[in-house]
Known about the structure:
The chain has 287 residues and is an alpha/beta fold. Helices cover 38% and strands 18% of the residues.
Amino acid sequence: MINRKGITTGILFIIFIMGIFILIYFAKRAEVVSDDRISWLKSTLIAHRGMHDEKESIPENTISAFARAIEKGYIIELDVSMTKDKRLVVFHDKKLKRLFGIDSYLMDMNYEDLQKLEFPNSKGKIPLFRDVLDFVNGRVPLIIEIKNEGKVGEMESMVYEELKGYPGQYAVQSFNPFTLSWFRKNAPDVLRGQLSGSFIVSDYEAEYAGTTRLPWYKRFILSNLLLNFESRPHFIAYEINNTDVKTFKKLRKLKVPVLGWTVREIAEYEKVKDVCDNFITEIFELN
């Protein structure tokens, strides 16, 4: 005798599972753009925070690091943060401790206070975003990471205002999907990239850089790109360390360029060189 109740339950279960997969598929979709708009992302290696080198007293995210990248013809990746008095500066960490030994948050400092600081073994200072744009002036492309974990809108608008009329190629990227969502809605002409990875934070990063430790459910959502329905990125930049090759192969199914970050050892590059379109790197002698 046919168990109609069992069959109905089974069908409903299959429909439920299929529904979940369909939702995930649409949630993770990216936005494909024409190759003539985005091909430059693959044109040359991407210098992580410029071509910085502690041994040569060239600090990260400084004019000297960017000058070196321009000299070599590399794409520049840089970070934009906002000070207490709402100035856009080029700086990566939330805290000043790693680079300056000061146990303070950048968001609590005015730009005038930051200008009193010099990087160790260098006379370089934290530059304004405007000054970096004026210096680079389109000589090489830029990938601009927006460091905003707070309310979205004001900072993104300020970044976009600075970029209006910029003569060179550029893209914005962020770990925050809602930052990219702002650009999607307000500046759809700007290329946008979704940063992601394992979101594993070491004790050193938490203490000295102020890197935020996320709860497990936020890590799960962000590492699996489940908010792409908000950002609809044009490219993905994904962590190489703590990530297996299988993950990168899945990312390629999104049909947009996939960048690997950050190459600091040849072994990291060798692991994923065949599944990434380009690399955000701190070493440049790659095969």
